[in-house]
Amino acid sequence: MTDIALNESLGYSYAQARERLRSALEDAGRAKDAAKLLAVSKTKPAAMIRQAWQLGQREFGENYLQEALEKQTELADLDGIVWHFIGPLQSNKTRSVAEHFDWVHSVDRLKIAKRLSEQRPTHLAPLNICLQVNVSREESKAGVLPEEVVELAKQVATLPNLHLRGLMAIPAPAEVSTLSASH
């Protein structure tokens, strides 16, 4: 695919995603700025992220730490870019995440939250976090169990360098049923 075709394809996809978000917010009776589009940029080249940024996208999600850090270095000249860590987070990676990301969507235990808070540089705003909830109780998925969320949220809310923003969950796939109307 040529650079021109890639730009056109990315531009079209971005416009479609923005329209779907706008429509969903309108259908829900919510303000047009009530939600933001998060572009999952894992495995995508920095050049593509730059193109998306030029189109107006500012929020990007990564889950491979080393790859993300390389992209952040390459794209350091982009103003207003917001980095989200969306993957599983191991203790040995919390320092880099605390230092280089604006959001973490996968906090599932107090130990990780404490490390992020302790390792967040004081010159940066508090790290926005979401608690990952294993709503389907799948053994193959990470996340705190639903009955443990409130207690974890209470504990995380006391940590000084974190801002608890919400929950993240990836439920088990469900069959989609369609209803047919008869006249």
Care to give the gist of this entry?
One of its GO terms (molecular function) is pyridoxal phosphate binding. This protein is α/β, with parallel strands linked by helices and about 180 residues long.
Descriptive keywords:
alpha/beta, TIM Barrel, six-stranded parallel β-sheet, 6 helices, Alanine racemase N-terminal domain-containing protein, PyrdxlP_homeostasis, PLP-binding_barrel, pyridoxal phosphate
Summarize model confidence as the mean pLDDT. Answer: 90
Task: State the CATH topology.
Answer: TIM Barrel
N- to C-terminal distance: 47 Å
What is the total tally of β strands?
A: 6
Beta fraction? 15-25%
Task: Evaluate the radius of gyration.
Answer: 18 Å
Q: What is the level-2 CATH architecture name?
A: Alpha-Beta Barrel
**Structural class based on helices, strands and sheet pairing:** alpha/beta
Q: In what order do the strands lie side by side in the largest sheet?
A: 1-2-3-4-5-6
Query: Which regions have little confidence, pLDDT < 50, spanning 5+ residues?
Result: none
The total domain count is 1
Total helical elements: 6
Helix content: 25-40%
CATH class: Alpha Beta
Shape: globular
Task: Explain this structure.
The structure is a single chain. With 183 residues, this protein is of the alpha/beta class. Helix content is 39%, strand content 16%. The radius of gyration is 18 Å and the shape is globular. The mean pLDDT is 90. The longest helix is centred in the N-terminal third of the chain and has 25 residues, at 3-27. α1 (3-27) crosses α2 (46-55) and α4 (94-100) packs across α5. β4, α5 and β5 (127-133) form a beta-alpha-beta unit. The chain has a single domain, classed as Alpha-Beta Barrel (TIM Barrel), CATH 3.20.20. The chain has helices at residues 3-27, 46-55, 65-74, 94-100, 110-119, 149-157, and strands at residues 39-40, 59-62, 82-85, 103-107, 127-133, 162-169. The chain has a 6-stranded parallel beta sheet with strand order 1-2-3-4-5-6, with helices on one face. Belongs to the pyridoxal phosphate-binding protein YggS/PROSC family.
